[in-house]
Design goal:
about 120 residues; mainly beta; seven-stranded mixed β-sheet; elongated
Length: about 120
């Protein structure tokens, strides 16, 4: 019904920056919650940044001051700007949107995950 297509991952040197995008395939009528998570092999997926409704975003302590979550409503896209990257930021990054999407059958509440994008930070 709805796909979240992520892009922007890749290889970067420590200290560098990357900007991840998460574009919804359908118009987002209302975002209840948006978030970015990351996962490394054999570890649980961890929350990196999220925003509930129109409230100020919250960030994991490990990324506070370096990462910024944002949204472009007109483009139905959520972003994660990552600065001052460290090798320990290496992971697959996933976006998630909980909200109301405009589908052919009408407005529908869904909780949707992106497919993941790999970020590798070299030392």
């Amino acid at each position: 019904q709805v796909q979240l297509v992520e892009s922007g991952g890749g290889l970067v040197q420590a200290g560098g920056s990357l900007s991840l995008s998460c574009a919804a395939s359908r118009r987002i009528f209302r975002v209840n919650r948006m978030g970015w998570y990351r996962q490394i092999p054999e570890k649980e997926r961890e929350l990196v940044a999220h925003s509930v409704g129109g409230a100020a975003p919250n960030y994991a302590d490990s990324v506070k001051g370096r990462f910024t979550i944002s949204r472009d409503s007109a483009k139905n896209t959520v972003y994660l700007q990552m600065n001052s990257l460290k090798p320990e930021d290496t992971a697959v990054y996933y976006c998630k949107i909980d909200g109301v999407f405009s589908l052919p059958e009408g407005l529908t509440y869904l909780e949707v995950w992106g497919q993941g994008t790999l970020v590798t930070v070299s030392s």
